[in-house]
Amino acid sequence: MDRSPSLPRCAATVLAAGILMTTAACSGGGSSGSATKSTSPPGKLTGSQAQAALISPSALGAQWNPASGGGTGRQDTLLQSKANKPNCQTLLDRLRSGNLMGVTPTAKAGEAFTEPSRNARMTYQVASYSRADADKGMAWLRTLPNVCDGFTAVDGSGNKVIAQVVQTSLPKAGDDRFGVRLSMVTTVQGLKTTLALEAAAARIGPNVISVTNGGLGGAGHAATQQAIQSGGQRLQKVLSGQTPPG
After folding, report:
1. 18-to-14, 118, 217, 235 alpha-carbon distances in Å
2. How far is CA 237 from CA 19, 142, 152, in A?
3. What is the distance between the alpha carbons of residues 236 and 45, in angstroms, rounded to a whole number?
4. Exposed, middle or buried, 26 (CB in 10 Å: 0-12/13-18/19+)?
């Protein structure tokens, strides 16, 4: 007698129909074991979380130190100039105030660093907004290279300022990111003065990292990139419930 095992009923049905089916389909299983779990979008930061998400000078390199006091005199004077285009004036106002998104956040924390050899100053902020406000702020930032590709301004002493905004490159960080570089050139008592200042932002959910970096000695683009990259990684950890090292 032939005692070879017979095919299971489900497999026999598959072969008879001439259709390739999975074992899960035969057994009535509804999903595969490789399905990924859905994750919730990041929520708004609290004040303490925003503080924990701040980077330290060591994230930028040994040449950076914590800053004390306000900005530099001539740089602040140039940012107080009156531009001939409304959107460019908004940029100067926001750079001067340190509020790059243009709306009041629900929570925020900020700090400042200096790089003495370049006479540069960096301001760094982590803040939480409504998602609509965060998206609006990022969209506004993206308009600047076109709208402010070339504009003029007048400083407080009546000197003409030639200015330009160009887009800069940023490392992948968060859900969205964008950066620009503002150059302002004027002549005071026969001496040419140039301000180079970078502004960059990275959004993770409704939370935004914003960075301004530069001064009369120029803007170190590598430092801006490092701030966005290190800051984005740190913010992700805070949002996931981790406590990053200081």
Report:
1. 6, 74, 75, 54
2. 48, 27, 42
3. 11
4. middle
- Pair of tokens at residue 131: 């998602």
DSSP state of 101: T
pTM of the model: 0.80
d(CA 180, CA 221): 10
Q: Are 143 and 111 in contact (CB under 8 A)?
A: no
Are 183 and 191 within 8 A, CB to CB?
A: no
User: Which is more confidently placed, 153 or 20?
Assistant: 153
* Residue 216 Cα distances to 34, 41, 195, angstroms: 55, 40, 5
- Give residue-wise pLDDT tens across range 168-191: 999 999 899 999 999 999 987 788
Distance of alpha carbon 221 from alpha carbon 205, whole angstroms: 25
Q: Which residue has the tokens 């660093």?
A: 113
Task: Please name the residues in contact with 242: beta carbons below 8 A apart, sequence gap of 6 or more.
Answer: none
Q: Is the dihedral of CA 89, 167, 132, 238 positive or negative?
A: negative
**pLDDT digits over 41-68, tens only?**
678 999 999 999 999 999 998 889 998 7
Stated as kind and residue range, the H or E segment containing 90 is helix 86-97
Q: Encoding tokens for residue 156?
A: 């407080």
CB of 189 within 8 A of CB of 181? no
H helix or E strand, kind and range, residue 108: strand 107-115
Alpha carbon distance 142, 180 (integer Å): 8
Neighbours of 221 (CB within 10 A): 18
Give pLDDT, residue 156.
Answer: 84
